[in-house]
């Protein structure tokens, strides 16, 4: 097929033709909207490094979730900011913990909305690490029981899906066993399977108050230089019972999303993280980029790479923009 017989521009000439040939379609059904929830009433604190994103009390959360529901976004994911922290992150699994309160409130108000909960300890521990610290290091095996306890407490509060983000070896299996043995075999697990130790998490740590108080997370989050390792991580999580596997961050790891999808054919989630949001938002606020076009192009690229669902702080904006088209 050579010019002039084949002219690709023929099929780009107008919007109707472009729509007919469009290979990747971004839909509101692909979106998961994240929220940060904290104790109190009437709390709506904007995150300095994430314009338009707020720390919310449960009453304020319900107002924003109403908008999510009305826009047709199928799911939210909740991150908790506790009132008190300790070495073991005990508020993470407390019956009256902030996530447990939020889940119950959301499910009471919006029973048909899918509520996913982040299962980790970093927001709840005084040291800011994702597990039990012993002798200055995170003890993988000592952490597993706590993570299972957190997941079970979320499900008992009404969570529809749990998403362990800690990157401890074996945690999916421990959580699966805890759920199954307590009558929750129907609850799916979305595993943060290929979670990289990324510089793009900075704004999230401000929003969730989860920065480590010493050291870093390189001993349990993945090296950004590695690709084959991601496939091994994903394979382990699937073997242990994960129903959805996640790649995080999204945009710098499109190659990983593609490899995971091709290798396993499993449902793949991608987390378009806080740093990705902050970069686009800052450039748009300065007039350097067209926010709508850049966001839609970015999320379409993540879908094109193989992601079936995208966690994004732009979820509500995208849902509104898609309604306009």
UniProtKB/TrEMBL annotation:
InterPro entries in the record: ALAD, ALAD_AS, Aldolase_TIM
Single GO term (MF): zinc ion binding
GO biological process: protoporphyrinogen IX biosynthetic process
GO cellular component: cytosol
Residue positions binding 5-aminolevulinate 1: 205, 217
Active-site feature positions: 195, 248
Protein residues bound to Mg(2+): 233
Pathway assignment: Porphyrin-containing compound metabolism; protoporphyrin-IX biosynthesis; coproporphyrinogen-III from 5-aminolevulinate: step 1/4
Source organism superkingdom: Bacteria
Keyword annotations: Heme biosynthesis, Lyase, Magnesium, Metal-binding, Porphyrin biosynthesis, Zinc
Residues where Zn(2+) binds: 120, 122, 130
Binding site for 5-aminolevulinate 2: 274, 313
Entry EC no(s): 4.2.1.24
Catalysis performed (reactions): 2 5-aminolevulinate = porphobilinogen + 2 H2O + H(+)
Family: Belongs to the ALAD family.
Quaternary data: Homooctamer.
Official protein name in the record: Delta-aminolevulinic acid dehydratase
Organism: Thermodesulforhabdus norvegica
């Amino acid at each position: 097929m050579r010019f002039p017989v084949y002219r690709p521009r023929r099929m780009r000439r107008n919007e109707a033709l472009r729509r007919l040939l469009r290979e990747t379609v971004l839909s509101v059904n692909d979106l998961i909207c994240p929220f940060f929830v904290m104790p109190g009433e009437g709390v709506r604190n904007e995150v300095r490094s994430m314009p338009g994103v707020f720390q919310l009390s449960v009453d304020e959360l319900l107002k924003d979730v109403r908008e999510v529901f009305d826009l047709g976004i199928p799911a939210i994911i909740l991150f908790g900011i506790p009132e008190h922290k300790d070495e073991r992150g005990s508020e993470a699994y407390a019956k009256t913990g902030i996530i447990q309160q939020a889940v119950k409130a959301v499910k009471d108000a919006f029973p048909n909305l899918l509520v996913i909960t982040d299962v980790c300890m970093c927001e709840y521990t005084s040291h800011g690490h994702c597990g039990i610290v012993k002798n200055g290091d995170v003890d993988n095996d000592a952490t597993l029981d706590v993570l299972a306890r957190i997941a079970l407490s979320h499900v008992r509060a009404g969570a529809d899906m749990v998403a362990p983000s800690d990157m401890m070896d074996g945690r999916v299996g421990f959580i699966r066993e805890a759920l199954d043995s307590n009558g929750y075999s129907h609850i799916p697990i979305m595993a943060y399977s290929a979670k990289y130790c990324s510089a793009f998490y900075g704004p999230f740590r401000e929003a969730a108050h989860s920065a480590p108080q010493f050291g870093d997370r390189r001993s349990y989050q993945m090296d950004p230089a590695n690709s084959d390792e991601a496939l091994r991580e994903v394979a382990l999580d699937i073997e242990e019972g994960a129903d959805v596997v996640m790649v995080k961050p999204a945009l710098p790891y499109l190659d990983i999303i593609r490899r995971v999808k091709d290798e396993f054919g499993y449902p793949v989630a991608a987390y378009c993280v806080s740093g990705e949001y902050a970069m686009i938002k800052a450039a748009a606020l300065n007039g350097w980029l067209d926010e709508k076009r850049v966001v839609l192009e970015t999320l379409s690229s993540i879908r094109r790479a193989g992601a079936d669902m995208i966690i994004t702080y732009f979820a509500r904006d995208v849902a509104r923009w898609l309604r306009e088209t």
